[in-house]
Write a structure and sequence with these properties.
Blueprint: E1 2-9, H1 26-38, E2 45-46, E3 55-64, H2 71-81, E4 86-94, E5 106-115, E6 128-130, H3 136-143, E7 148-151, E8 166-177, E9 180-187, H4 194-206, H5 213-221, E10 236-242
Parallel strand pairs: 3-10, 5-6
Antiparallel strand pairs: 1-3, 1-4, 2-3, 5-9, 5-10, 7-8, 8-9
């Protein structure tokens, strides 16, 4: 039987989602906990492999098991064996052709920026902080150039292994609430560091170092060397994954909101 699950985690103390031999990973923790419930080793696939320090409120995974467990048993049993910074949110049987990664039609991320004179002691691993005033109007003007299908070579990490740099961004919203700026983006898929590079570019526009038109120029240049600073991982959250309706999987989880 194939089981799909939703996973939430605080990425602060992880080397990322993917299992690594000499570092702590979310995948290894989840597989070990589920194996205890199934009473056999298993391997999970995820919708999106997050980097070190990146959080998730709605990571979707799947695994195969012959163990006869109820949905409730998978959730309660896994959580009893997971560390405090990882939680299984739900579990459900799915069709055999479902794949957490390859069946996904879109993924959503939220990037949180604390724009204040003083950094937060409590949110230091939850947000990216800058003391320089950010003009969200300028940032929105720059962000509109990223909507649609483009070659995002200027916004991918140099070590990105994706075969094609072309991605389609269907939504890119920016809103301010108090001292926090929230950048929400949805695309059919993302390149390595793509969201963090977009956030870094828009922050440079917001503080006046660059004009909004610079974003369009970067897209046209298709050169990561001209792409600006990669924003820190700690402000980034995987918040949603969209699948075909026939799988009946909810699209989004909790949206982190502070202040």
């Amino acid at each position: 039987m194939r089981i799909a699950c939703g996973v939430e985690y605080d990425g602060s103390e992880f080397s990322g989602w993917q299992r690594q031999r000499h570092a702590r990973s979310v995948q290894a923790e989840v597989e070990a906990a589920l194996a205890r419930v199934a009473d056999h080793p298993l391997e999970v696939a995820c919708a999106g492999r997050t980097d070190a320090g990146v959080h998730a409120t709605w990571q979707v995974i799947h695994f195969d098991s012959a163990a006869g467990r109820s949905e409730r048993s998978w959730v309660l049993g896994a959580n009893a064996n997971l560390p405090r910074d990882v939680r299984l949110l739900w579990a459900k049987p799915v069709e055999e052709d479902f794949h957490a990664r390859f069946s996904a039609r879109a993924r959503s991320y939220r990037y949180v920026i604390l724009n204040s004179e003083v950094p937060s002691a409590l949110l230091r691993q939850r947000v990216t902080w800058t003391h320089r005033p950010l003009d969200e109007g300028r940032m929105r003007e720059g962000a509109r150039h990223l909507l649609g299908e483009h070659d995002f070579s200027s916004f991918r990490a140099t070590a990105c292994q994706a075969h094609s740099p072309v991605r389609e961004v269907s939504r890119l919203d920016l809103q301010r609430s108090g001292a926090c700026l929230y950048l929400d983006i949805e695309a059919n898929a993302f390149l390595h560091h793509m969201v963090r590079n977009i956030a870094g570019v828009l922050m440079a526009v917001g503080c006046g170092d660059r004009d909004p038109g610079w974003v369009r120029e970067l897209l046209e240049q298709r050169d990561r060397a001209r792409g600006g600073v990669t924003a820190p991982a700690r402000g980034l959250y995987l918040t949603g994954v969209r699948y075909p309706r026939r799988y009946a999987i909810a699209e989004t989880g909790m949206l982190p909101r502070y202040l």
